[in-house]
Each structure stands twice: as C-alpha cells, then as structure tokens.
UniProtKB/TrEMBL annotation:
It is an enzyme of class 3 (hydrolase). This is Bifunctional oligoribonuclease/PAP phosphatase NrnA. GO terms for molecular function: 3'(2'),5'-bisphosphate nucleotidase activity; nucleic acid binding. Pfam families: DHH, DHHA1. Residues 247-329 form the DHHA1 domain. It comes from the Bacteria. Residues 18-169 form the DDH domain. InterPro entries: DDH_dom, DHH_sf, DHHA1_dom, Oligoribo/pAp-PDE_c-di-AMP_PDE. Keywords: Hydrolase. Its EC number is 3.1.3.7. It comes from Flavobacterium flavipigmentatum.
C-alpha cells in the first residue's frame, strides 16, 4: 500500500467515525472473516463500525465472532441505507467492482463518503479513494493483517481478530494448499495461533458441520459429474429440483466444485447451479496450474475471479448453458 495512502487513512482513523464495512454478495469465509476482523479492530479503536452484507451469509459462518451484528441489506434495506448514508467512511472488502454487491450497488454509487478498497482480485475498479489491491495475496484476510500492521496497530491484534483472519486465510487457501500460500502466510498463521485462534476447532466449525441432506446433495453432484479426459476437464451440475429434493440451504454447495479437480489428470473443472429465484445458472470454475479460469469466466460467462478460482453466471437454461460449456471445452487446448 502507498505510504501517502497509509498516512491519509491514519488521519481519517485518528478521530472516532461511523464506518460501514461491506463484503461481496454471497459472502464467503474470506469476505466474512475480513469484514469482521476489521469490525473488531475499528471497534477497539473507538469507531462505530457496521458490517453490511448485500445478502445473507451461510450458516457455517454464523459462529464467527460478531456475525450476529452483521446487517443484511437485502432483508433490511431501509435501515441499511440510512447507516450507509450516515457513514463517514466506507470499506469494501474482498471484491474489485461495485457490481459485486448486486442491487446494493445503486445505493453505494450515490454515497459521498470516501471508500477504501482492500482486495486481492484482478483488475480493480477505481471507485475507491484509497485502494489496497494486490493479486499476489491468497486472501483479503491476509491483507487485513498487513493493513493493521501498516497502521502501526499490531498490539491491537487479539484472539477475536485472529479468529476472523484465520478463517479467511484457511477458506481462501483451500486449507493452505493453493499456490498463493506463502511462507509469509504461514508465519502470519503461526502468529494467529499464538494469539489464540483455535486452529483445530475452526476447521471443524467450517467443514465438519454438514447436515445429512447436504452430504446426499454432494453425492448427487458427484454422480452428475462428467469427465472430458482428453481435455483434462470435468464438470457437474445441480438443478433447482435437485437442490429442493435435498432440502438445500445456503452454503450446502460450498466446496463441491473442488471434487472435480480430485480426479487424476483433471486440471479444469466447473459446477453449474441453477437458481430459479434469480433466473440464473451460477457457475464456479477451478483449475490447477496455468489454465486461467478468470479469463475463461470473463470471456464466456460474464464473470471473473482469480487464475485458479473464478465464477460467473448464465441467463439461459441449464441445458443450453451446459451445451455451451461442452462446446467450449471440446475446443480447448489444455
Ligand atoms: P466461487 O466459485 O467460490 O463463488 O468464487 C471463486 C472466485 O471467483 C471468488 O474470488 C469470487 O469472488 C469470484 N467470483 C465468483 N463469481 C463471480 C462473478 O460472477 N463475477 C466475478 N467477477 N467474480 C466472481
Ligand atoms: Mn477472497
């Protein structure tokens, strides 16, 4: 982060302020971990922070300290709008473009308070007065840790903040496996554990918290999987009917996409999930190595993300979407 920006932010934070902190729509472990870590840090520094999520977060994140204070814009639009209009400073975390908050974009676009973006996605938009954007980081949470150090506030790190940061690093790194996991990531993680982050408890809360029906849904997704061996690609799909028949709740499909890469020789995979309410097929892409799914998602499915993990959407039927994907895959040279 630029020295001048750090100085300017220090000045902004020198007096108590009303501050809104915003994760992307469909908040994941990194989005919730980073916003709540920052929330606890700002609270400790006598500010009045509020985390406002565009829509609800999954149940497997509901144990995060402070999650009970998170406002949901979609459910509580009027109050959230007031809080946003009264905010003197706005942090947007773990996303690079305002449209990633969905309908809330229109409200954010009208605000006059300065924005601070902290994010690790490619091609950040320029809506923020201060932008800390760096794609070399595996998670926004790791950047929040640095951000607190930039502000010379290391002594403020405590068990609560460490727990939130640990969660985002863990989830966005695929449990410390993805390529952006560095020695420095592990040094930070070691410190978080020393601060009290429960490193054996947190993964249980996040990953060993499934319902029986969620496991059955996973089974269905695995059965639906198709493999294009010669193109090193696999994909699976879940229709709204399938989701309904396994009593789907938000969060149940989290992580399923990764199974597609666990097949020997497969380096590109996708999951297509129908959302009847939003009239879209939501897509997640994953890859191993040099195949750039961010570019693939941008080029073909109105999305984006990172080189090895991206998302997108389709507004045509599941059948047409899968046909389009298969046609693209059979032309791929990977
Ligand atoms: P996931 O597949 O886990 O939802 O998302 C993987 C990565 O791609 C995340 O970094 C997420 O922020 C990004 N991503 C997911 N969906 C979209 C999308 O529709 N548009 C863009 N630009 N990025 C997305
Ligand atoms: Mn992230």
């Amino acid at each position: 982060m630029k020295i001048q920006d750090i100085q300017a932010i220090k000045l902004l934070l020198a007096s108590p302020k009303k501050i809104a902190i915003i994760p992307h729509r469909g908040p994941d472990g990194d989005a919730m971990g980073s916003t709540l870590a920052l929330y606890h840090f700002l609270l400790k520094n006598n500010h009045q922070p509020t985390v406002i999520a565009p829509n609800d977060f999954p149940d497997f994140l509901a144990w995060l300290p402070g999650s009970e204070t998170v406002r949901i814009f979609e459910k509580d639009t009027e109050n959230c709008t007031t809080i946003l209009q009264e905010a003197e400073l706005i942090f947007t975390l773990d996303f690079n473009a305002l449209h990633r908050v969905g309908d809330m974009e229109h409200t954010l676009a009208k605000l006059t308070a300065p924005f601070i973006m902290i994010d690790h996605h490619q091609k950040p938009d320029d809506y923020a007065a201060y932008t800390y954007s760096d794609t070399s980081f595996g998670s926004t949470c790791e950047m929040i840790y640095n951000f607190i150090l930039f502000l010379d506030k290391k002594e403020d790190l405590d068990k609560t903040i460490a727990t939130c940061i640990y969660t985002g690093i863990l989830t966005d790194s695929g449990s410390f496996r993805f390529p952006k996991t560095t020695g420095n990531t592990h040094r930070i993680v070691a410190e978080l554990i020393d601060l009290g982050a429960e490193n054996t408890e947190i993964p249980v809360l996040l990953f060993d918290n499934s319902s029986y029906s969620r496991l059955q849904l996973l089974g269905r997704a695995l059965q639906n999987m198709k493999v294009f061996k010669e193109h090193k690609t696999s994909y699976t799909s879940l229709t709204q009917n399938e989701l309904d028949s396994f009593d789907y709740v938000k969060g149940d499909t989290e992580g399923i996409v990764n199974y597609g890469l666990s097949i020997k020789g497969i380096i590109f995979t996708a999951i297509f999930i129908e959302n009847k309410d939003e009239k879209i097929i939501k897509i997640s892409f994953r890859s191993q190595g040099g195949f750039d799914v961010n570019q693939f998602a941008r080029d073909h499915f109105n999305g984006g993300g990172h080189i090895n993990a991206a998302g997108g959407k389709s507004e045509v039927s599941m059948e047409e979407t899968l046909k389009k994907f298969e046609d693209l895959v059979t032309k791929l040279k990977i």
